[in-house]
Predict the 3D structure of the following.
Amino acid sequence: MASSPARFLSARRRHRSAGLVVLLFGLLAVGTAYTALVPDNAAVADDAAQSQKIEEGRKLFAVGCASCHGLNAEGSTDGEGRIVAPSLIGVGAAAVDFQVGTGRMPAQQTGAQVPRKNVVYSPEEIEALAAYVASLGPGPAVPNSDAYDVSKATDEQVTRGGALFRTNCTACHNFAGSGGALPNGRYAPSLMGVSEKHMYEAMLTGPQQMPVFSDQVLTAQDKRDVIAYLKALENQQDPGGFGLGRLGPVSEGLWGWLVGIGILVGVAVWIGAKGVRAKDEH
């Protein structure tokens, strides 16, 4: 008789839907574990595509870049220890996109300055090369279009970009972004006609002798403002007359010597010749 109340209470506690609830909790636990442990098909496909892109970039690198930068992108030096081609480990995808996307690489010959020229690789090949170099070590990634889009820049942002440019860039690139000479055969190239993307990448990676303007030095908004200012300069007219390449006192002084003084010399010769004729007539 003592066991009858216990069995009664146990039967009262066991509801008819208890088994269904336990089953649902079990299915939920299995589904959660499966979601956590089994990789997503889309992620697997993305990883496979990225691996294929890296492999394509490795093959392109071996053919077009390894002769200077080394088979493993470790760089190379000449017989006296001077760097012929720098190491690309850790430069990031943005550096490759800039150098190859502007035609500077592959270089036709080594020298103090690698000039901009026609692009050799297709956009897909440049993307593959950038992916391969990025896989060698962490570095700045290729920025997305929102990072350098200045289509909606305000006048205030353009003005602010001009102040930043004059503070950080005019010493090399000239007050109007026209470029200028540097020591040892180097020069700062003109920024006119350069795409917004490549301007951003140049500030991010510091190609050749240019310093790196990381986000700690110039924020992403600072970079956009500088680009907006340079794009405004491209569309700016020269209300004073000839722009003379916007090279400042160099071109203005040359114009003054060749044209201004040339005209004065011509006038002096004409006056002298006229005076001689007048004297002969008398």
